[in-house]
Write a structure and sequence with these properties.
The complex is a heterodimer of chains A (393) and B (260). Chain A is mostly beta strands. Helix content of chain A is 11%, strand content 33%. In chain A, the strands form six sheets. Chain A has a five-stranded mixed sheet with strand order 4-3-12-7-8. In chain A, strands 5, 6, 9, 10 and 11 form a five-stranded antiparallel sheet that branches.
Chain lengths: 393, 260
Amino acid sequence: MTVSRRVLLRTLLQGIGAGLVLGRSLQTVQGGRGDEAGQASGPLTVRVTRPFDAETPVREFASWLTPNERFFVRSHFGPPNADAVQPDVWRLTVKGLVKDGLSLNLKELRQFEEVTLTAVLQCSGNGRAHHRPKVPGVQWERGAVGNAQWTGVRLRDLLQRAGVKLQGLHVQFQGADRPALATVPLFTRSIPLAKALHPDTLLAYEMNGRPLPLLHGAPLRVITPGWMAESCMKWLAEITVRADETPGYYMQQAYRIPETSIHPSSGLPGTAMVPVERMLVKSLIAAPAEGDTVRKGPVTIQGVAWAGEAPVAKVEVSCDDGYTWEQARVIGEEQPYAWRQWRYIWNARTTGPTAILCRAMDARGERQPETSPWNPGGFLWNGWDRLSVTVAA
Amino acid sequence: MRMVQKPSSVVLASLKPSTYTNRTPRAGTLPAHRLAGVSKPDAPYSSRRAPRCGLVGRTFSPFTIVLLVILGGVVATAAQEDERATVEPTLARRAATLILARCAVCHTTDLIVQQRLPEDRWTATVEKMVHWGADLTKDEAAVLLQYLTARYHPGAPDHLPSIENELAMTEPLRGQTTATDGPLTGLAARGAGLYAHNCQACHGEGAVGGVGPKLARNTILKNDGVFWETVLHGRGPMPAWGSVLSHQDIADIHAWLATR
């Protein structure tokens, strides 16, 4: 099974790679390395082969920036045909409740002021596999998250040029990706006008200083720093200003959570469901790895912590399965929306198996809970991270 | 080509509701001290944790859940022993074939195999997919639902074989690959309908291409070996159709494609 999956994936990735030869400015980092991607030891752990959904092995989070070829990939239908998003064909339309509609190619788009920021991108389903009872969907574990530098222009600048009419309260995004069957609803999303006008909300064409790869939304994707990634529309083709939230499945049914926490056995929630928006405080252990054997003496435990729109206030580590906690040292510079790396030196004295846990608190005073509240979509898991290690003499 | 079988005739003898409503605890998600029921000294974050773990104000506390999970795990483990026996081979074969032909149009089967859902969630999922265009008759949807509920319930093991392997395991040995009993004459008129039903979603109306390559005037039509190999065993993201289409069906589709 492993072999056939790997072969399947290689062919798929080669297909994508071949398609990209056509669009010179579009580069995929997957191309030559696809044969490794199906293995846990490769750059990504594949959850679904088509549409390609894959997560980053957490050991990669020992680096502050997540490299493009190791960045998690998630989409509902896979990338559009490479020729549909070629620079000479692709255009971005701004329409709806605006005074003057816009239609821009990439060169015209780049006339707006260029902005670069570093932000965590996280799939709302990251950690879905930890929810009990289990919920349907891609069973993401820990790595549907990454930290990258995004370069592009402000969505606000485009909206100001187009002129948002008074009735315009939501900004809708449509990508160029399409489902295999026309009967499947399109992935269409909207964000409230306030977030769209925030000076840090970008339309990005570069990722970590390189042209945005096709798998990550080339030629243009939305970046809503501090919000979960379903707002960060890939392969962006149309922006529509509207009076109401976007109708349709992916805005009104999917990516919604109960307003107040509900009980798993209560069936469908009686409480109001609201769209998933901001990120919650969360931390992960990047090293050691699950199942590692460490030597008695000083052991470096390291990882990352982030809290979306708020700074990380502190990270705590337990090396005795949660009985006692120590504060980890948060390192590196604080940058809004980016994650912080942290380190803790554990003096391992007792041989045998133990569990290492971490949890973070943000500047708003919100704390990472032991387990996240259950919700029918399995979104926003931010329970304490935990791994088992064995201390050897 | 379609097998006619009423789902009610399929017996899932040892499948009891309890086998899929119970849950197995998974190492790494429930800390050991919680499974053991050991209380921990108050940590700085206990104010947040307390209401979640406390027995007050909840009709169904986490400790109760843990207890149920442990008890459930015992029952589920016993039930898992004869897991395979609970899915009748004819049903399994038919369901796996439907998954390859009808579900894999939009997503690979690995997405299905990783789910562990109770019957009501599977029902909702299959209904959603049919609503979105999955080409399943009522009977077919019922067969699929029975299979999914029996194989991928919350108590099922973490790792299960792929649908492709399931099919290989249940499939009777057949005459080999591209070999056919004498030359087949493809009927283009019949092939048109078969194409529309099985291939069009990916290869487009009129075989002009879609998520899959354009097939009209594609050189593969002139290379019998590659054509049959691809259709029977799949290629890249394309699923294997050998268990869905008969050799006559494939020859008919080929004949129709040759007219495009």
